[in-house]
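Notes to self after the Tuesday call (sharing in case useful).
The group wants a holo model before anyone commits to mutagenesis around the pocket. I volunteered. Ligand is magnesium ion. Logging inputs and output together so the record is complete.
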Amino acid sequence: MKLDATDLRYVTSEEFRVLTATEMGSKNHEVVPSSLIAQIAGLKNGGVNKILGSLAKRNLIAKVRNAKYDGYRLTYGGYDYLAIRALSKRDSMYSVGNQIGVGKESDVYVVADMEGNEMAMKIHRLGRISFRTIKQNRDYMGKRKSASWMYMSRLAAQKEWAFMQVLHEHGFPVPRPVDHARHCILMGFVDAYPLRQITDVPSPGKLYSQLMDLIVRFAHAGLIHGDFNEFNILIKRDSGEPVVIDFPQMVSTSHVNAEWYFNRDVECIRTFFRRRFRYESVLYPRFRSTLDEGDENGENFKLDVVVAASGFGNKEQQILSEYMLDVQGDAGAAEDEEMEEESDEEEEEENSESDGEVPNDKTHDGVRVHPHPPIPSSNTLHRCN
Ligand code: ADP
Ligand code: MG
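Result:
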């Protein structure tokens, strides 16, 4: 989705009031009646219609014809505007540049502050693709069916923000958190290539150990990344050091399926190194012994508990993970088919593998961990590529 930064500056204060009123009204109305918008904004009905028209023309809101009444809903453009305005009012950012990343559930832009210092802005977009597939009777949907893309995107941003802060404070190689608002996160720009794009490294063995050490460090701190793969590991251009991004799916090591998530992270790295660099090591971390080591060394400082106490608590965690399970559960069937096709091609590349310890959930030809955890759990199900 394109962000029009120039347009952002030309919203009058009345238009802003009407936009904010539409956002507020959408908390309990799928389609917000114009009269309610006028009431919240404190404007006369007549006056509000013109403003609604001009906001709709710029795609900040959209007119919806309902069986019972006509009204408006906030669009992604409108929600982006409100978040970006909040960030620029606080002088956290000033301008929006090129888009650098587009994922299934986010857009990432280079942005800058007044002094021209570059940052990355990640806009969470849950529900962009698969929202239709969500079960309508989920508790978290409640009355807010139409607003839930907004709510879910905001929750994902909140979670990412909470984790980025805690990890950064504890010296993990993650981007520097700058600010956040609604569904947007501002963070330090990392001048790097995703590992996915790297064809050659000076020492695959060294990088492999660095990445496995990171998985171990996360676990000693009570955490599992949950999507630790070549897309979410950036390799700095100057130093070749890895930086880890993308935290909305992180889980605690006390999660019921923690071992499964841990093994999947480890397996993603092993598989990638085997295919890309033809590098294979007999050394890789095991869940139980990693946790025991952490306890023995007194390193277990329980960041999962710190994050839970920081405002992104269990309730939010549960709501977000139920959503993610629903979405990815539905997407799962298609992905499984895709994976079948891929694995045929890969078979030639793969050497048959005989690990001493084959996790239960790993296929016996040793190719990959199954994309779904053994029992339904409260977390996302990203596949390992
Ligand atoms: P998604 O959840 O959509 O996978 P990511 O957080 O993984 O989003 O970001 C998507 C892409 O955006 C990354 O692969 C990377 O290329 C780019 N990116 C994200 N954060 C930064 C950052 N702080 N600095 C530079 N590039 C980034
Ligand atoms: Mg990612």
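Two things stood out.
Residues 314-349 form the longest helix (36 residues).
The radius of gyration is 23 Å.
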